[in-house]
């Protein structure tokens, strides 16, 4: 029986039009999950050279795959629910029952499409998702309620549904000489975050913007009056207010929440400069205690979400804060969708083995500036640094070439950080301004 | 050690200014929970004659109670967080540690007040509540996600974050000759509900307004364009869209979610004409199967909420729909706060015994039109129908006299519905227009 793989982005209800322009390119990460016989629903036709590259590396039979894409032309409304797309998908399935539905962003539209194909029950957690569950499983606000309800350590702060509550929290933290990070409820990769500080020299990672305030009171009111609409997407959402910990490390543990088992997918470190730039899987040099805290907390969140009816990927994000005493692990958000790391450890397992983390590091970078995908491939071949199954090391291109700003994301598979760094130096870089 | 009882209403974040004008009167239901030595925080001074009435009936020592009320005058902001109120409450506690905090509407303001008194851990579920949990435990949208995620039966429908999704759902139901009920995410007692119908003769209970649409398509768009802002409280919240079942019975089962135990508080039936008018505890004539379905589903929701970190009252509401075959129990919402029934079964237990439901019925009515509280009391005495501990029957006044519209809510304690009806006929009614 075929699987149905759906390359959708988070709905407008969560992130508005953020990322919409690049959706077709972005959704191609779905290809790393293909298996023989899959039916893929994608917002745009995939780049054939990238599709060939992936199927070759993963020993998948390209001819066994069916790709369904919407009819050309901008149409209003949720593309997944376009009746013509449903019709095309039904044709592609040709009466075969769907074994499993796997979507980048599981939500009510995915369930609705599956239902119209008679495959509702093939969507993991379909009951929960069908009734708006994506707004729970992706919310940084709900995350804080559940994490605090489970006794997990969180950065000092709260969830604000109105500017007065935000003012009280921000003022309390700033007046105590602690910088503050504000987070939009649903945005990803640091793009919905802003840091507020009273001092000029703060080094910030993990936020798109840093705002210098003249004082901890009136300037906070001025800031909130100016930014409340942006922070809440026009008052639709809540705002997370937290103490910001400069110099902390961002780590994650990602799981698959199944009916019976909660399985670790992978763990790693995210490095933001100032927003998502690269990541290491597994996170280098975690102490046993740090890793244990990350795993215990991550599994606890999975158990809560499972009790709520969620099934699928759940990534628990945390920061490691070096304090006066023992470094502490504070949880910062969760993501109930296919994250920017899911395809990385997935391909890591397919290429370097399910237990890659024992002797290999995956170093994922968002941008290699190259003139084209073909040129990138040629360079890897000529340098002899393309991924080699024999040595279980080398460079993997993670997606097709993105014309603006002319980059390809990639993953270095190496023995450790130093070996990955050496590999990275052998990538040809376009001269940058 | 004293308990701290807090007579607050749902925050503006949930219900806006709905009910705010009558808050002082409304909050007096808190008095039914008092025990000797309690410190009560109320938005306005309670009616002394009602307070005397309650303490006498419940054998509570009035002199052992301390009532804290905010300083006079309208002040902006959340009254519970007024520093002067905190100061007064601290004085009332006089250094005694707080044994338990019990609030009508447990939320982040309750936790913040408790924290400033050094009593945060005395708030059940304080971690969850402190991080915005009230927006989860009171949400009809989150309810649907969790109930569907647990496999509970729900009326056909969904949770809509945008008008397009609402349009699709409404149109599907109406085109199938099924009327539709729309519900605001947080409002109570049917006040945030509207029913949409294509036929004139629909008899509606449980909604403040019924809207007759000319067709199932264009008229739905016109309706949503007109009402979306109202339905979503200015786009802040989601909207629940469900099939409306005319003639269904509204029932509930209410529990206390504790660390260890989930305890049944009471169950009953709510009768709306068209919004909340009266209720019976327990619900008369439930079949064993109906009661079982209500209890199993209600307990399941409690378990999910407990896993999420919630502690306190949880009421599960359902409708019983008589169909062609067996009547079905569909769950419709939950409420993680002290509901309009909590004080009723609480006083029922205090007056008629913990097992009152074995041989007594509580019939609660929202309005007895009388000139004053004193006049109501006099009438009960002269008719000999005031509650009598000897017979475990009679009339209990549930709150003080409300000047607009000149009513007192009351509870009949009787052997059964017929006996309650006979008691009700002996209440003197003001002539109504």
Automatic annotation (TrEMBL), chains A, B:
Annotated ranges, domain ATP-grasp: 144-365
Q: Does the keyword RNA-binding apply?
A: no
* Pfam families membership: PGM1_C (PF18105), PreAtp-grasp (PF18604)
Q: Which domain of life is it from?
A: Bacteria
Keywords, ordered alphabetically: ATP-binding, Nucleotide-binding
Recorded hits in InterPro entries, A to Z, give:
ATP-grasp (IPR011761), PGM1_C (IPR041356), PreAtp-grasp (IPR040754)
What is an example of a GO molecular function annotated in this UniProt entry? ATP binding
Q: Note whether ATP-binding occurs among the keywords.
A: yes
User: Which residues belong to the signal peptide in this entry?
Assistant: none
Any idea what this protein is called?
ATP-grasp domain-containing protein
- Source organism of this protein record: Streptomyces wuyuanensis
The organism's taxonomy opens as:
Bacteria, Bacillati, Actinomycetota, Actinomycetes, Kitasatosporales
């Amino acid at each position: 029986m075929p699987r149905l793989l759906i390359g959708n982005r988070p709905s407008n209800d969560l992130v508005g039009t953020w990322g919409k322009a690049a959706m077709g390119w972005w959704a191609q990460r779905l290809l790393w999950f293909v298996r023989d016989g899959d039916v893929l629903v994608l917002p745009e036709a995939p780049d054939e050279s990238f599709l060939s590259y992936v199927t070759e590396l993963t020993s998948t039979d390209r001819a066994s795959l069916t790709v369904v894409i919407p009819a050309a032309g901008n149409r209003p409304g949720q593309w997944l629910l376009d009746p013509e797309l449903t019709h095309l998908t039904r044709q592609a399935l040709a009466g075969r029952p769907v074994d499993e539905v796997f979507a980048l962003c599981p939500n009510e539209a995915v369930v609705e499409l599956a239902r119209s194909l008679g495959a509702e029950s093939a969507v993991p957690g379909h009951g929960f998702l069908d009734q708006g569950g994506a707004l729970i499983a992706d919310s940084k606000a709900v995350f804080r309620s559940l994490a605090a309800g489970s006794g997990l350590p969180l950065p000092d702060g709260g969830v604000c549904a109105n500017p007065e509550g935000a003012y009280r929290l921000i003022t309390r933290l700033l007046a105590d000489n602690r910088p503050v990070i504000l987070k939009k409820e649903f945005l990803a990769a640091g793009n919905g975050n802003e840091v507020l500080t009273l001092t000029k020299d703060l080094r910030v990672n993990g936020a798109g913007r840093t705002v210098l305030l003249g004082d901890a009171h009136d300037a906070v009111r001025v800031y909130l009056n100016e930014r409340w609409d942006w922070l809440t997407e026009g008052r639709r959402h809540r705002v997370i207010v937290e103490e910001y910990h400069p110099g902390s490390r961002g780590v994650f543990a990602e799981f698959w929440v199944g009916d019976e088992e909660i399985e670790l997918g992978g763990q790693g470190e995210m490095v933001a400069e100032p927003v998502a730039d690269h990541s290491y899987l597994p996170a280098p040099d975690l102490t046993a205690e740090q890793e244990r805290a990350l795993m215990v907390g991550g599994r606890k969140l999975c158990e809560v979400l499972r009790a709520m009816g969620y099934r699928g990927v759940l990534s628990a994000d945390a920061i490691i804060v070096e304090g006066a005493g023992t470094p502490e692990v504070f949880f910062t958000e969760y993501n109930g969708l296919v994250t920017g790391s899911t395809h990385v450890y997935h391909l890591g397992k397919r290429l370097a083995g399910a237990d890659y983390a024992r002797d290999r590091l995956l170093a994922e970078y968002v941008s290699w500036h190259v003139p084209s995908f073909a040129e990138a491939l040629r360079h890897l071949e000529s340098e002899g640094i393309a991924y080699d199954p024999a040595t279980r090391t080398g460079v993997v291109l993670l997606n097709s070439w993105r014309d603006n700003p002319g980059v390809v994301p990639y993953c270095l598979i190496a023995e450790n950080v130093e070996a990955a760094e050496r590999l990275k130096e052998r990538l040809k870089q376009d001269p940058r301004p």
